[in-house]
Each structure stands twice: as C-alpha cells, then as structure tokens.
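Entry for the shared binder. Reason: the reviewer on the internal report wants the predicted structure included alongside the sequence.
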Amino acid sequence: MSNMRRWVCLAGMLLFTVAVYAQQLSLSGRIEMNGTIVDGAIVKLTPGGLSTTTDEKGNFSFPGVAPGNYELTIQRVGAEEYKQKVTVRSENVILTLRLTPAKSTQLDDIVVYSANEHGAGKLRQVEGTAIYAGKKTEVVNIANINANLATNNPRQVYGRIVGLNIWEYDGGGVQLGIGGRGLNPSRVSNFNTRQNGYDISADALGYPESYYTPPTEAIERIEVVRGAASLQYGTQFGGLVNFQLKKGPADKPFEFISRQTGGSFGFFNSFNSIGGTTHKLNYYSYFQYKRADSWRANSHFNQQTAYIHVDYPITDKLKITGEYTFMHYLAQQPGGLTDSDFDKDPSMSVRSRNWFKVDWNLYNITFDYQINSSTKLNWRSYALRAGREALGILSYINRPDPGGPRDLLADTYRNYGSELRLLHQYRLFNGQTSSLLTGVRVYKGLTYRDQGDADAGSGAVFNFDPKEPNLSSYKFPGTNIAAFAENIFQITDKWSITPGVRFEHISTKADGYYYKIMRFVPNVKMPEQKENNRSFVLFGIGTSYQFKSGIELYANISQNYRSINFNDLRVQNDNAKVDSLLKDETGFTADGGVRGKLNDWLYFDASIFLLRYNDRIGSIFTKDQDNMVYRLRTNVADSRNIGFESLIEADLLKLLSAGVSRHRLSVYTNFALIDSRYINTQETAIKDKLVEYVPPVLFRTGLSFGNKKYNITYQYSYVARQYSDATNAEFTPTAVDGVVPAYQVMDMSFSYQWRWLGIFASINNLANAKYFTRRADGYPGPGIIPSDRRGYYLTLQVKI
C-alpha cells in the first residue's frame, strides 16, 4: 500500500469515528461536596454494571447510553453514599451532584486512610487520550513516598519500579540513568522520555538521551509503560517514562512553597514554587538552584532550572495549556579510575581538566477539545532549543593526562514535534463501553555535532582551537511521520482485548566532514553525505480480565524497533569505536501477570516477560593494531531477555486495624530475576554470554512508619554482579571493560510536617558502602565511575 493510501485510510477512520458515534447519547456529570470538586469518587451505573471514577475536575461520563431508566451510586471516602435515579430519553443528560460529608466522631486522632496512599500504583485502562488496557504500567506517587527529593536519589524515588538497573554517578540527581528489563541505563536512552506527555530527550531520532530531568520536588507522579508503549509513544524496547508535573491547586488562588536543603560535600538546593487558580486560569511555576562540590577531587556542579505552566478553559469544551522549561548546568568532572585506583581510594581523581555543560529550552502548547461526552481530541506541539558540550581528556585512564589541547564535543539540538490524538468511547458487545484511540505524530529533529581540539588550559572554556573543528563537523536532520490506532474491545464487563497498530516512516541524514587519522602524514579531510529512509508497521495485542475482588490478569505482546543514528558513527574516541555498518534493531516484547489491591491495604503486581532483540547493538572487547584495548560498538548478535518481576506494597497496620489506625506501617518489596544472553551467533567470544549491564538479581525493599505528621523510612537495595561488555571480560588495563561487582546500599529518611512548616532529613548510603555501577568509555570517564559515599541532608519547607 502506498503512503498516500495509508494517509487516506487514516483520515477516513478519523472522520468515520466522529461521524458515526458523535450522535450517541451519554450520561455525564460533575460531583461536588461543600462547594469543592470531588475527584476519585466511584460512580456506578445500574442496570449495566458499569463503573467509573471522577477525574481531577470532578467529572464522570458514561458514553453510548441507551434510552431508559437508570440509577447512579456515588461512593467516596469521607462522604455519605449517594444514589440518584435518572431517565435518559432522546438527548444527552448532564448532571451536577452534591455529596454530603459523612457523619464522624473525633476519636483521639484516629485516621482513616484512602486507597490512593500507596506509593505504587498502575494507570487506568483509559487516561486522558491514552489507552493502557492490558499493558504493564507502573506509577510512583511522589507525595506518598518519603525520599530525598532534593538530590533526586534514584534508589529511593524509583524504588517501586521493578527491574530497573540504575547508574549512580551524579550525587545531585541532575542526570538520570535508568534501564529496565536488561536495557542500557545510559541517560534513559532506551525509554521514550516525556514530560506531561511530550518529548524531552535530545533528539528522539538521532540521539535519544535525556540530559534534562525534572526536579523530583516538582513532580506529581512518574508513569512507566513497558515495551507495549511502542504503539502509542514510539518504537523503543524500553517503553515510556512520563514525568507528570504538578499544577496549581484548584481550590485556592495562591500557594507558595519554599524548600531549602543543605547537605554533605557542600550540597545546597533551593526550590521555590507558586501556583493556584484564579478566574479559571490555573498556573504553576518553580525555580530551582542547586550546587555541590561532591566527595571526589576535581568535582563540582551548579544548576538552575525553571518552569512555568498555565492552562485556561476558553470554553466549556476547549482548554489551552502553555509550558516552558529552562535548565542550565555546568559541572567539573573528576573522570574515571582504574580498578587498582578504585580499590585504593575511590575519592581520588586523575583528571582535573574535564568539564560538562548543558543548556535546555523546552516549549509546549496543548489544546484539549471535548467534541462531545464520548469523544475528545488532544493536540500537543513542542519545540526544543538545547545544547550540550563535553570538554576534557578522553585518553586511556591508565595513562596520565598528557597535557596539551583538550577534546571538545559540542552538540546543538533544534527539534519540533506535533502529536494529534482522538479518543472515542462507544457501546459494543451487549452495551459494554469500548474505546478507540487514533493518532498522528510528525517530528523533525536536527542535531549539529562538532568535535575537535580546544584550548590547553584547565577551565570551562568551550571554544574550538582552531575555530573550525579539526576532527569532525556534521548536521544530522531527521524526520519521523507516524500514525497509530488502538482499540479496547470490552467483550464483557470483566474481559477486554486491545489490538493496536503503528505505521512509521523514518528518514535520517548526515551532511558534513571528518578527518581520517593518518600515522605519518597530515590527517585528510573527508566530506560525507548519507541518507537512510525506511517505513514499517508494528503490531501488538493485549488482554485484561478483571475479577470482582479487584484483581486483574493481563498479557501483551508488541513489536519494537530501534533505529541507528548517524551521529554515533563519527565520534573520535580511543576507548570506543563504532562499526560503520551498523544496522537497525528489531524485535518484540511480551509480558503477562497479575496485579491488584486487596481491601486497600495491599497492592501487588507480579509478571513474567520476554524481550527479544534481533541484531542487538552492543560492545565487544577487542584490541587495536598497537595491542591497546578498546570497545567496538557493533551489531553483536541476537539476544533474548527473560525474567520475573514482582512488587508488593502493604500497610500492615491497616490490615490489623481494619483500615482505622493512628499510624501507618508500610512495607514494600521490589524483586526481579533477569536472564539475558546473546543467541544465534557463531562468534565463540560472545556465544551464550550475558548481555552487558544486566544484573541477574535486583532487590529493593523498604519499611516506613508514621502518620500524617511524621514518617521514618528505611530502604535496602541489592544489585547483583554484572558485566560491561558482551565478551564478559573480568578485567582490562584501561578499566573501560570488566566486571561490575554486586553491591548493596541502604538509605534512611525522616519527615515531620506541622501546619505550614516541614522538616525532612536523609542519610544516603547509610553504611558508607564502597561501590560503582558503571564503567564509562567516554564522559564522564573513561574508566570506573565511583558512586557516592555516605551523605547527610536536611530540608526545611515553608508552605503558605
């Protein structure tokens, strides 16, 4: 089928959806209590056995209702149960319902906790204009965890996301490195990384790494969708990570929060935000300043981050949202270490001239249009103006700094994207509500990458010397056009099937030059132009079965795809080289499991998965003509990752007291077993070897005790032994390849809140463990990157 026919079919499907279903009747409304909207209320419709919950604006909807007599039942913690008889005739019914607060008796500060006080959770089958039925989804509710938010401590913040391998080399939490199910953690590059639903990575096509991570203090919740996200959000094997930021409170015109944190190694963090709702305009803005000297020599960073969000309902159906994000980050990097240096003193540094700088400007505008009670449209458009510059010495770490000019690698990113989504809900299969999602995405990325000599000094001077880069200079334009559709077929009130399809067209280009390194004559300038166009279709299907007890069985299988990019091919690095014949990776992800809640005191999710890679790109330990060790990045072989994941979070006091207690005693365990191996290869050096950076065992557990005023939390993390290259080398002189030993780390956090004042304290790495999580072949190394030793932190918060 030609591209034109594909687009015609897609347009026809969208028009057909709107035309056929727009006239169906619906029963919808808004729920209030004491003049305030009520979100999270359970609304049941009989006959029919349908159930939904009110959104953040107190709204609910039952689309496709047939004429007849019905009864609504509304249940909400803190309110009397409410029943309302409704007659649907020949037009849509819109109601405003007002709940009555539950009669209560004061009993010595006894607290009844609601079901949403778990730190972990999952996404609903339909959220906004997205579909998650039958998919492995995870949610971290930041307000419900006691963690060191000022340092973005990833062990604590992501402790309830199963199977994550975390690179811990940034004590300030400026850059995030997480990988799931055996995927490389490098700057979240194997996830589609978004903020409020739009891309934040450097270049989704050419360089999908994230140098910007929102401050955890500004995050409402973190949403993770595994490999099945490939149909809605992009083709990545890892899936989606979406940072849902806070908004201004809906019930007050102004709120001010100031958090000031001091800690070990000169750490200081100032986070200040304002927000509120006035005349239907909701606004939220923050500014953060962060600095530290770190525990290693030649190590320092400072960062400024700012954000503003405004949204305004132009009409009852149309809302417009605008957002802007700014970040500036400058760091001196201490470099890596050899194995022997790490064993002697991990705080030492043998590089004093390495620097790193990031500038980020991210813009977004979103339109939400409620066509009718059963059909909604979301259109988001965003742009990135950003850059990152790495300056220093990339030579082997087992050799001293040779002096002379430093290497400068400078990137500039100029990206645009626009995504249109249409969600329609309709009646099918004995009156059950089914949901259709269709969408179109257009993305244009442009990366400028220059590499060459910089000055011979030791300061943060990011200028080429000479002015023209003398190693390489490229521009990498890329275009992505995608169309996707998924449909939840609600077969019965318990069982749903969700098939999906995504069409992708990717065009990547390279235009520039590089210098061919010559041994005895001057280097030769080599002009280069390349273009790679490909189109393909991905398919997936999922299913879900809901038991009356609230337990759900789910399963999914979806195809994945990862395209190579030209801007990886021309980086000059003695420690790592790239195969010029790299080709795209293909494969699929399958998972299935059981999850749910038991009487609001227990949340659990246990699943198994299979991730299949064809032509997996990896690193092979090899030697050059001078017998020096380096990494070769190439299509190593096919691989398969199989594993078991489980998360259990329980409030033991809620169990023992039937939901009524002065305190909470919460415990969670996060456990994953992963076997990841190279297959289908005749290369004996890697046949049946473990895939790099895949610990076979990951275990994190935490215990939390407290009430609404105070809380104390303990967390323990264990990560098993892993390798840094495909040959599973135990040791190399350059420390670029070798084993990453197993390690275990503990953290403690304490919080106390009284009216407008909050006090938060934390001890990171309680037992002062000596460990590392990464061997780098370039910045911030090369070599072993030691993780932070024990640190103490104290935060004072004022909320007005």
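Summary line for the report: The helical segments are 3-21, 154-157, 230-233, 339-344, 652-656.
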